[in-house]
Predict the structure.
Amino acid sequence: MNSANPNDSLFERFFRESKEAMFITSREGRFLEVNQAMEALLGHERGALLGMEVIAIFDSQGDRIPYQETIEKQGVVHQYPLILKRRDGTPLPCIIDAITWKEGNSILGYHGIIRTRTELVEALVSFFNQLKEERRQIREQRRHMISDTMLLNRYLGEDIIDYIRKTGKNPLGTKKQKVTVLFFDIRNSTGIAEKLEPEIFAEFLNDILKDIMDLVYGRRGSVNKLIGDGLMATFGAPLTSGRDALNAIEAAQEICDYLRTFNDVRPKYLADPVAAGIGLATGTVFAGVIGSVRRQEYTVLGDAVNIASRLEKLTRRAAEKILLDEATYNEVKDLFPCHKAFAGRIRGRTGSSLVYGLNSSREE
């Protein structure tokens, strides 16, 4: 490549240094200027080309007249097919883009770009490869969107999905916030499973958990985890309702009422009524999406999660089916008839804790 001359115009530098074969010819058919790429394409040095008639590089000299008629009629040719020839006589299939060069109404010549068909094929291949990659990216984005939608539909209520639709904002960002955590667990599920065929037991669990999830969603809660024969739900994450502890209490009572109704009409394959326990705790937790690119889930982490889990386990030995910690009690004590169940140490915590019981039905 020639070194840049500061006296050259920008067009002259572009013309000379372009990797595309460029030319300027007179209307009578002589080369007025060519660049280095044109020399390389045809195998002629610049001086030889400038002293040469244009028709000399046509593989068939009769092709020049139709080319000239077309460009003068239209003022331009785009991807005009021609077969030129190299210095050694090798045919050179080409595509030409050119325009007329005028002064006033007089055509003085033509200037344009010559590309080989090989270059065109390579350009098309590059284009289709780029298109293929863009489609792959779109498919990948669509896959993530479907995955995210499934995540939302699985764990979040309709109110949160509506929030996303209306605002376009992501409510699943990482943050600390106050929530009420609910743990639910079916009692003696192992004993039930031993008496049933696996597919029947799976159907039994699916039916109950699906209905309970709907009750959670109905009270503006979110299901964070399905844990074997139970689940963990949060009220206040990812969005707060302003009455999260109250919603959690109401959901807990509705779950107990639901199980009471279920037992009244339970399937014949269940010899005994289905029992369950619920633990509730309120506190500030970490809320956000955790995991890797392979698997992610929205969850909450913190002391309230651990306490709610411990309280759910304590219902196995307590008379109450619903137990709540002191923080939750303080949120709802003026609205729900709670009573002190016991004061003692909860596993995993130091010191003594007050635990309250709640009537398991809204009618009581």
Summary: Residues 204 and 289 are 30 Å apart (CA to CA). The longest helix spans residues 117-155. The longest strand covers residues 276-291.
